[in-house]
Structure formats: structure tokens, C-alpha cells
Amino acid sequence: MTPSQNPTKVAYRRFVLEMSVAMGAYFVVLLASRAYFSTVAQPWLTVAALAPAIPLLAAFVSVAKMLRATDEFKRKMIVDSAAFAGSLTALLAATYGFAEGPGMLPHPSAWATWFVFMTLWFASALLIKARYR
Amino acid sequence: MKNRIKVLRAERDLSQADLADEVGVSRQTIVALEAGKYAPSLPLAFKLARVFACTVEDVFDPTSLD
User: Fold this and answer.
1) For residues A69 and A7, what is the distance between their CA atoms, to the nearest angstrom?
2) What are the extents of the domains in chain A?
3) Which residues of A touch B38 (CB under 8 A)?
4) Domain edges within chain B
5) What is the pLDDT of residues A89-109, one digit of tens each?
6) Given 3.20.20.140, 1.10.472.10, 1.10.260.40, 2.40.30.10, which CATH number is that of B5-53?
7) Alpha helix (H) ranges present in A1-133?
8) Mean pLDDT of the region A65-81
9) B46 touches chain A (CB under 8 A)
10) A73 vs B29: CB contact, 8 Å cut-off?
């Protein structure tokens, strides 16, 4: 098998291409959405506000495809780090929710959960990578 | 899991990248295998044994799991 035929490398190259296209489309749609949603009424307001989720769905599909096509060790590292980040995010969200109930803490944006999960996923991926070195 | 991948690879003058391409995985996977920090699946163990033209037991030491 030559390097260009290695399925793990092929999967990675395809992932980079698909993710780049999805992220490029995301920023274009996001800018268009932000430009238009203050000028339109319902039902177009909903369409404009939610439109950036469509290229994000494409990004999700590219991650899922890469996860299926990459080699078993890389898949294990990605899944382990995502599971760790997801569990910790759920714990933090629940703990925050308990404090939020009686009004001890403000109601944050749903983006906060996304930010916490992605930060923890990145950090746990680095830790897991270091463990196998 | 202890194994002889590093020795067998050196005997055949293969780099980690060469071996990774032979069995269709990343070099990072070969690094983790050689360090004994990752136990491969049965299909990957057989692929490695095939590259080295020996049995799975010749590559991996099953007693290291005890």
C-alpha cells in the first residue's frame, strides 16, 4: 500500500477538504444571515436566523465520515476525548443549573454549553494524546 | 501489551511511516503500538503479522496481559 492509498491518510485529506468547504460556507451564510435577519419579517426571520445551522450540519457529517474511515487508534482517541468532554460538560451544566434555579447565577446563552464542550474536547484530546506518546 | 514490532520493523529496515502505510494506519498508531500503550484489534494484529511474515504470537506477547 502506497502512502496515497493509506485509508487513514485518505480519510484525513477528505476530512480537511470537506471541513474547509463546510466552514467556508458557514461563514458566508452566517454573514448573510446577520445582514438580513434585522430587515425581514416572519417566516423569513426564522429561516435567516437558522440558516447557519445547515453548513454546520455538513461539518457534523464530515466529522462522522472521518470517524468511520480513520484507523482504530485515532477513532479511540477521538471518541475517548469526546466522551470525557461530554460527561464533564453535562456535569458542569447540571451543577450550574442547580445554582441557576434559586437565582444564584444568571441564565447564560446556549452558546456557553457549546463553548465549554469544545474547550474541554480540545483539552482532553491533548491529554489523551500525551498519554499514548 | 508487549510486542516485537520495533525489532521486526528494524530487521526489515522499515520506518514507522512505512509500516503505517503497509497496514493502513497512522504513524501515531504505530508509535502507540511499539510503546505497548495500545492493544490492537484482531484484524490489525493479523495485518501486522502478515507484513512481518510471522504469526500473531510472534509479534505480540500474550503473557504480558496476565
Assistant:
1) 7
2) 1-70, 71-133
3) 73, 76, 132
4) 5-53
5) 999 999 999 998 888 888 888
6) 1.10.260.40
7) 7-36, 44-50, 53-69, 72-100, 111-131
8) 93
9) no
10) yes
Structure confidence by residue, pLDDT tens digits, B8-60? 999 999 999 999 999 999 999 999 999 988 989 999 999 999 999 999 998 99
ipTM of the complex: 0.85
A-B contacts at Cβ under 8 angstroms: 52
Q: Give every CB contact of residue A77 below 8 A, 6+ residues apart in sequence.
A: A125, A128, A129, A132
C-alpha cell at A76: 479511540
Other C-beta atoms closer than 10 Å to the C-beta of A77 total 21
Q: In terms of pLDDT, which residue wins out, A24 or A6? A: A24
Task: Give the residue carrying C-alpha cell 503473557.
Answer: B63
The answer, yes or no, to whether residue B66 has pLDDT greater than 70, is no
